[in-house]
Specification:
The complex is a heterotrimer. By secondary structure, chain B is mainly alpha-helical. Chain B contains 27 helices and six strands. A two-stranded antiparallel ribbon of chain B has the order 1-4. A two-stranded antiparallel ribbon of chain B has the order 2-3. By secondary structure, chain C is mainly α. Chain C has one domain: Helix Hairpins. The longest helix of chain C is centred in the C-terminal third of the chain and has 31 residues. The radius of gyration of chain C is 16 Å and the shape is elongated. Classes of the chains: A mainly alpha, B mainly alpha, C mainly alpha. At the A-B interface, helix 6, helix 11, helix 13, helix 14 and helix 15 of A face helix 5, helix 6 and helix 26 of B.
Chain lengths: 519, 738, 100
């Protein structure tokens, strides 16, 4: 039952990277073609996987591929690391989104005019890391890909970024690395405790209630806290930084503002999803008991992110910073939905990850278009741009309304499903959280519409009256994302049918495990 | 023609109703600018087909109810639905299985036809009014998509889809109000930009309440479908000893919050006057006939979920809005402003009517229908006037336009009479019933009901004011001397498509309430078509309500709207003893009739006295009221209050959070970085002194030892040799001696 | 004549050689001292071979030593000449560069 398809999806970009490294530095055209091809093939493969290969509705991991990787003949020294990949309904849409956004990211990068060879090589390496994280079923492999992804991002921000790129890149790097270290500690502890790196195996042990930490510490306690609690918080912080959840979010605006547009797109579109995905795949199912203990705290953090992120966005004058904070706000729904542990909530969270991936990516592309022309991002410095650039205005409006959760567009489905799920949570305190979080809905609408008003409506700023409208390349980048926003708003079952089997299984097994653990 | 409703085919026709304009929209948005005449004919034709279907379907509904039967169809009963969240079969019991279908009942039929008719004529009117506009094709695309949303809302059989369409309407309202915010030639470009944002955000507040309300109902009932919600509400109320549980009151209030936002009820009405920045056809369609009526429609759909407490609140909000907006309406000089406040006021009537329950529910919804006809006509007439006067909106600069624009004048006069509540005109039949219902609430149970009294008195006063300010508008615009000759000289009658639209809508303003010519029932005593669609009049033997002599019904019930729901036992005074109900009904009929006739007449006469005969100077009257007038003329400073409190608070919060984020949250991060750097320096010192000191110390010790040892090293070979020989001797000595 | 006589001669020669090596102030004499020590060793090799062994081992060693001594003397005299050129003296006590 070995399927090699996922390996191709992961490693074709790496082959592309190798090909680029072999290219002479000056043949930029060739490099771009290679990048396009090396991102397009995985997109095609992932599309095939999505619509043809994948058995819809099944909760199982599919297209698994496993080979022993780091083994030793000595039993004591045997790490038993496998190269084990596979997809289920939660990861498949995200894999597909990754391949799509990276493919879009290539033409969106055509404006970059320095060090193209290194840039595209790093971009492809980034794709390897991201897809690798999404499909890894072995915690060691997961960690390896997690780190692989970190490095290109650091250079992409640090070399091709804006004026304060070094600061932003280092902040991003250190912040994420701090999280990685916590994850590493937790992973090692889990390995010592369970004797395996395999995520499904760990999950199974944990779901039986057998993960107690007694092998590591006497009575499974360390400094008065349960082993699982330690693991939970270590992993949670590692992933929460990535989401990002308040108060671990401050790397995000800096990284976004300084990163070049396509990198912002990928950062907002996919990298943030790794956090949410990590929580669903590699944190909560491994420590369901601790999750149950702290579910409300997580919900509170989610709601703080929603409301607080929206308010901070309202106070921004930098276009890109505002969009960055809107990500903080929107990703709060993911945490809230997951914490509620209801079918609606978890589906909503999984959906929100995808839909935020399209809408926020579209918003960053929007900002990029205007930044390429005006070379500034001051919201108060524009005005009346809808007159010279009507098509651009139309696309922006669509992207913004998708982001503010207008029904009929994708954002609404995920937000509404999440909120309904949270309201239906077993813990009645979640209802209060939902009531607070709806403030975020209004404030989100406020800052987005205010931005539209300041940038596009009203009297035209004479400086910008000769600006050309959005060009074909820019439309080509935005069109698929906006199409997804509309299509998935009307036909959300194109995602939910795929996710539902896995998510339902996720929720029911988590609930069962919590029951077992709580006796 | 066969007028029986056939679920097999007719639901497909109904599905086509929103789909036709939707296809039109898609074509228009992508290719509109390349089409001849920028595609307006395409969308207008499409709307004509849509209108034909809606009217045809409405006749089916009326035909069915005229036969004495209820009319209530759900497409899910014939398995005609749209699986939204999941396309795969999950079993009907799965709560995640949101399946949307079509609900087509009397109310829906009436509303659908109204939307179809008004939309078509607004399209037609726009071909003239918007001629030469910079973004003509976009305008048509937008009103088309708006129509789609409104039609979809009316057809929705579940509250979630109602909400979806509700919000899409909000978006289209935003885009259409902001239509001129892209137009460099418009002198109100900034105001338009601000107005569209304000409209969306203000309604968004209400919409969010509605969403929460929906969530609460879903949490308890695990369904979005109206019919299931009603049944669940009935079961819950019955299980709770006939009382509504507290959470239903809370959720009901939240749902009503949606109405407050969308239907511009106090205090969220502030967006509607500003929304007049949009093109006039938009005001006619969205802000008079359809979108703002959606809030009222929502109340009609969710009525069984509303506890008596909620209904009292609804009544109070409605009455306050009706009164409050009417007072402002008397002081405004902008022709569209008057109509805007008049709309708010009339919406207050509808809401208050629904709040009084039973008969009032029907009357409120009926008023929504008739109001849609005459108010859209009024707006379009105002648009015609504005068009004729070259975009002059100030009534003080108009006057004497009667002769220049006779057809417009005719249409506007008919509709003014309708809104004033003059008998024979559409508004009379609905407004009168609202007041009647308020009276019945007041006297219900033999006690004087405070809310009912407030509603009755308040609505009567508001009705008087309505008559006054509407005739003030007529007299200032069409009568008297031309005040601004430049405007007057250039004034002209509008082109044919506009005038046709006006006249058709005016006809509906005339006969939309009741075809009184047909059975010569001038006072509407035999009931109207709308009452037949939605309510049942049981006179003991099964007959037709409209054929029965006497007043409306012997035992009145609204079961046709909520079949199978014992609605009268749940939350209305209609459940009183039949005897008292009869008394109340008759007394109400009499008193409401007298009252509303008197106030309408009074208001009109006052307007005639002041503005036509000029017996009194309005400025002096205004001055006599002093502060009070200033307050009213400044719209009670609600906008200023909201700006100074709510909006300011939000901005303060935003800045505070931004400051916290930059200085505290990020400060902690940067602080951690700094502390770590300080640690780094400390360790560097430690490293260079202590750690490296140890290393150097080891070196030094070695060095010293070396210096000591090197004393032996003279470099003289002979010395070495002698030492070696000496050593050898010693070795031998040790070997031999040991 | 027994083995003892040879050993005594060799020992005397060795003692003279050592004395010469240690005490003489001229490097030529030092070299001659070394030659004497080597030849004392040669006597021992040949004597022990004559009285104890039945092969040619000892005598072969002696021949090797003679050849090596010749080579050594040649090299050593060369070095001495260079040392004289560099230092202007052939006194071993004056040449103490090894100390550094």
């Amino acid at each position: 039952m070995d399927h090699t398809l996922l390996n191709w999806i992961i490693f074709i970009p790496m082959m592309g990277m190798a090909a680029i490294l072999l290219c002479p530095k000056r043949s930029v055209g060739l490099i771009k073609v290679i990048s396009l091809v090396a991102t397009f093939i995985p997109l095609v493969l992932a599309t095939w996987l999505y619509f043809v290969g994948f058995e819809v509705g099944s909760p199982a991991y599919q297209f698994q591929f496993m080979r022993p990787w780091i083994y030793s003949s000595s039993e004591a020294m045997n790490m038993k690391v496998n190269y084990h990949v596979g997809v289920d309904g939660i990861s498949l849409p995200l894999v597909w989104l990754t391949t799509l956004l990276l493919f879009i990211g290539v033409p969106a990068s055509f404006g970059i005019k320095k060090g193209e060879k290194a840039y595209y090589a790093l971009l492809l390496l980034l794709e390897v890391g991201i897809i690798g994280v999404f499909v890894s079923l072995d915690y060691f492999l997961f960690y390896v890909f997690w780190e692989i992804m970190l490095l290109p991002m650091y250079f992409l921000i640090g070399i091709w970024g804006g004026p304060r790129r070094e600061y932003a890149a280092i902040k991003f790097f250190l912040y994420t690395l701090a999280g990685s270290v916590l994850m590493l500690v937790a992973v090692i502890a889990l390995r010592l405790e369970t004797g395996t790196f395999s995520i499904p195996a760990m999950t199974e042990i944990a779901m039986r209630g057998d993960l107690l930490g007694t092998k590591l510490f006497a009575g499974g306690m360390l400094l008065g806290m349960k082993f699982t609690t330690w693991v939970f918080w270590f992993l949670f912080v590692a992933f929460a930084i990535k989401i990002p959840v308040f108060p671990f979010h401050t790397w995000l605006p800096d990284a976004h503002v300084q990163a070049p547009t396509p990198i912002s797109v990928i950062l907002a579109g996919i990298l943030l999803k790794l956090g949410g995905y990590g929580l669903m795949r590699a944190c909560f199912p491994i420590v369901p008991g601790a999750f149950d203990d702290f579910a409300f705290t997580l919900g509170v953090l989610g709601v703080i992110s929603i409301v607080y992120g929206a308010y901070v966005a309202l106070g921004q004058t930098d276009f890109k910073r505002m969009v960055a904070y809107s990500s903080v706000s929107h990703m709060g729904y993911v945490l809230l939905g997951v914490a509620a542990l209801t079918e609606w909530g978890a589906n909503g969270a999984a959906l929100q990850m995808f839909n935020h991936g399209t809408s926020s990516a579209a918003m960053f592309l929007v900002v990029g278009v205007i930044y390429d022309r005006a070379h500034h991002r001051d919201l108060n410095g524009f005005g009346g741009l809808s007159q010279p650039m009507p098509v651009y205005w139309g696309l922006t409006t669509l992207a913004f309304f998708a982001a503010l959760g207008l029904p009929g567009l994708a954002g609404f489905v995920s937000e509404a499903v999440t909120l309904i799920g949270a309201y239906n949570a077993g813990d009645p305190r979640f209802r209060v959280l939902v009531l607070i979080s709806v403030i975020g809905i209004v404030i989100t609408a406020a800052f987005l519409l205010w931005a539209i008003q300041r940038v596009f409506l009203g009297t035209l700023n004479e400086k910008y009256k000769d600006y050309p409208d959005i060009n074909a390349r820019e439309i080509f980048c935005q069109a698929p994302l906006l199409f997804l926003c509309v299509a998935l708003g009307i036909l959300p079952f194109y995602l939910l049918d795929w996710m539902e089997g896995s998510v339902e299984h996720w929720v029911s097994s988590m609930s069962q495990a919590i029951q077992i653990i709580n006796g | 023609m066969d007028l029986t409703f056939n679920p097999e085919t007719d639901f497909k026709w109904l599905l086509a109703v929103p789909l036709i304009p939707l296809c039109g929209y898609v074509i228009q948005i992508f290719f509109g600018r390349f089409l001849p005449r920028k595609g307006d004919w395409l969308l207008t034709t499409g709307m004509a087909v849509t209108m034909a279907i809606t009217v045809w379907m409405a006749f089916k509904a009326i035909a069915a109810t005229q036969g004495g039967e209820g009319f209530f169809h759900e497409s899910l009963d014939s398995d005609f639905g749209f699986r939204w969240l999941y396309a795969t079969e999950k079993g009907a019991t799965d709560p995640l299985n949101v399946t949307a279908g079509i609900l087509y009942d009397g109310l829906g039929a009436a509303m659908l036809a109204v939307v179809g008719i008004v939309s078509f004529f607004v399209h037609l009117f726009s071909t003239g009014y918007m001629h030469g506009d910079r973004r003509y094709h976009i305008f048509f695309a937008n009103i088309s998509l708006f129509t789609v949303a409104m039609l979809g809302l009316v057809l929705s059989d579940n509250i979630l889809f109602l909400f979806v369409f509700w919000e899409i309407m909000g978006l289209m309202s935003y885009l259409l109000i902001g239509h001129f915010s892209h137009d460099p030639n418009s002198h109100r470009i900034k105001q338009a930009a601000a107005a569209c944002k304000k409209a969306f955000l203000t309604t968004r507040v209400g919409d969010t309440c509605l969403l929460v309300g929906i969530m609460i109902f879903y949490y308890h009932f695990q369904t979005f479908r109206f019919t299931e919600l009603w049944e669940a509400a009935q079961t819950t109320v019955a299980a709770n000893g006939g009382e509504y549980p507290a959470w239903m009151t809370a959720a009901g209030l939240l749902v009503f919050g949606g109405t407050v936002g969308k239907s511009a009820q106090f205090p969220l009405h502030i967006w509607l006057p500003d929304a007049m920045e949009g093109p006039t056809p938009v005001s006619a369609m969205i802000h008079a006939a359809t979108m703002v009526a959606a809030g009222v429609f929502l109340l009609g759909r969710t009525y069984p979920l509303m506890s008596p407490t909620v209904l009292n609140v609804v009544t109070c909000f409605g009455t306050v809005t009706a009164l409050f907006a009417a007072t402002i309406g008397m002081t405004v000089f902008d022709i569209k402003g008057v109509l805007a406040y008049s709309t708010i006021s009339q919406l207050g009537f509808m809401v208050a009517g629904i709040g009084t329950g039973g008969l009032g529910l029907i009357a409120g919804l009926f008023h929504m229908v008739t109001h849609a006809f005459f108010k859209s006509c009024l707006f379009l007439s105002a648009g015609s006037v504005i068009h004729g006067c070259h975009h002059e909106q100030d009534m003080r600069k108009m006057g004497g336009l009667r002769k220049k624009m006779p057809l417009t004048f005719l249409a506007m006069l008919i509709c003014t009479l309708a809104i004033a509540g003059v008998p024979l005109f559409a508004g009379f039949y609905s407004k009168d019933k609202i007041i009647q219902s308020a009276f019945m609430k007041m006297t219900h149970g033999g006690l004087l009901d405070g809310v009912g009294l407030f509603a009755y008195a308040g609505l009567l006063i508001a009705a008087a004011m309505t008559a006054f300010y509407m005739f003030r508008l007529i007299f200032m615009t069409f009568f008297g001397e031309a005040r601004d000759h430049h405007v007057h000289d250039h004034a002209h009658e509008s082109p044919a498509p506009m005038v046709v639209s006006l006249l058709v809508l005016a006809t509906l303003g005339m006969f939309g309430g009741k075809m009184w010519l047909r059975d010569f029932d001038l006072m509407g005593a035999k009931g109207t078509w709308f009452e037949g669609l939605t309510s049942e009049i049981d006179d003991g033997h099964h007959g037709h309500g409209s054929e029965h002599e006497g007043s409306v019904g012997e035992a009145f019930s609204i079961d046709r709207m909520y079949p199978g729901i014992a609605i009268t036992e749940m939350n209305t005074y209609v459940g009183d003893s039949a005897e008292h109900f009869q008394e109340s009904l008759h007394a109400g009929h009499t008193w409401a009739m007298r009252g509303s006739l008197a106030v309408a007449l009074g208001g009109i006469l006052l307007a005639v006295f002041i503005y036509l005969l000029k017996k009194a100077d309005p400025a002096k009257i205004a001055a006599a009221f002093g502060e009070m007038y200033t307050t009213v003329a400044n719209k009670y400073y609600v906008d200023e209050f909201v700006n100074a409190t709510v909006i300011k608070l939000q901005m303060v919060l935003a800045r505070t959070f931004k400051w916290i984020d930059e200085n505290i949250v990020d400060g902690v991060v940067n602080g951690t970085g700094k502390i770590n750097r300080a640690f780094g320096f400390m360790w560097a010192w430690f490293d260079s002194t202590v750690v490296d000191g140890v290393v150097n110390g080891v070196g030094a010790v070695t060095n010293m030892t070396g210096s000591l040892v090197r004393l032996f090293q003279t470099g003289r070979i002979q010395q070495y040799a002698s030492l070696a020989f000496g050593g050898l001797l010693l070795l031998f000595a040790w070997l031999f001696l040991a | 004549m027994g083995l003892e006589a040879y050993v005594v001669v060799a020992t005397i020669l060795f003692g003279l050689g050592i004395a010469c090596l240690i005490t003489r102030r001229n490097v030529i004499y030092v070299l001659m001292g070394i030659e004497m020590i080597l030849n004392s060793a040669n006597i021992n090799f040949v004597a022990f071979n004559r009285f104890n062994g039945d092969g040619m081992d000892g005598r072969m060693f002696a021949i090797f030593v003679i050849i090596l001594a010749a080579a050594e003397a040649a090299v050593a005299l060369g070095i001495v000449l260079n040392v004289f050129q560099l230092f202007g003296t052939v006194k071993p006590s004056d040449v103490d560069l090894l100390r550094e």
